[in-house]
Amino acid sequence: MDGSDGLAGGMTVAGFAFLGVGAWMSGDDALLIECAIVAAAGAAFLPFNFPPARLFMGDAGSIPIGFLAAALSLSGWRATATGRCGSRQRSLRLSSPMRLSPC
């Protein structure tokens, strides 16, 4: 995915923006800020990665972004034990632009 111009950066912005919306809906301010930072970093990268691309993300960028997507999406499973069941599950469903399988 990181070999196509604008694809990895665009998916970063879209995916973390949707995850941030889910965090905002569930009232999780920490997750909202984390998602906003990653989405802003992806948006700052995009102008340099559209055709003709002057910068290439490569594996050094796409692997940490994928790790952040998984870690931030699945971190809500800890919150389930504290009684906040469903708050981040909504965030996980809203992050579906990054996933290929349905909810």
Short description:
By secondary structure, this protein is mainly α. Helices cover 69% and strands 0% of the residues.
Largest sheet properties:
none
Total number of β-strand segments? 0
Spans of at least 5 consecutive residues with low confidence? none
Roughly what fraction of the amino acids lie in strands? Answer: under 5%
Task: Give the H and E element order.
Answer: HHHHH
**DSSP summary: helix tally:** 5
Helix content: 55-70%
Could you list some keywords that capture this structure?
single chain, 103 residues, mainly alpha, 0% strand, elongated
Characterize the structure shown.
By secondary structure, this protein is mostly helical. The protein has one domain (7-49, 58-95). The chain has five helices and no strands. The protein has helices spanning 7-26, 29-49, 58-74, 76-80, 87-94. Helix 1 (7-26) packs antiparallel against helix 2. It is elongated and about 40 Å long. The chain starts with 6 loop residues before the first helix and ends in a 9-residue tail after the last helix.
Layout of SSEs?
Elements: H1 7-26, H2 29-49, H3 58-74, H4 76-80, H5 87-94
Helix pairs in contact: 1-2, 1-3, 1-5
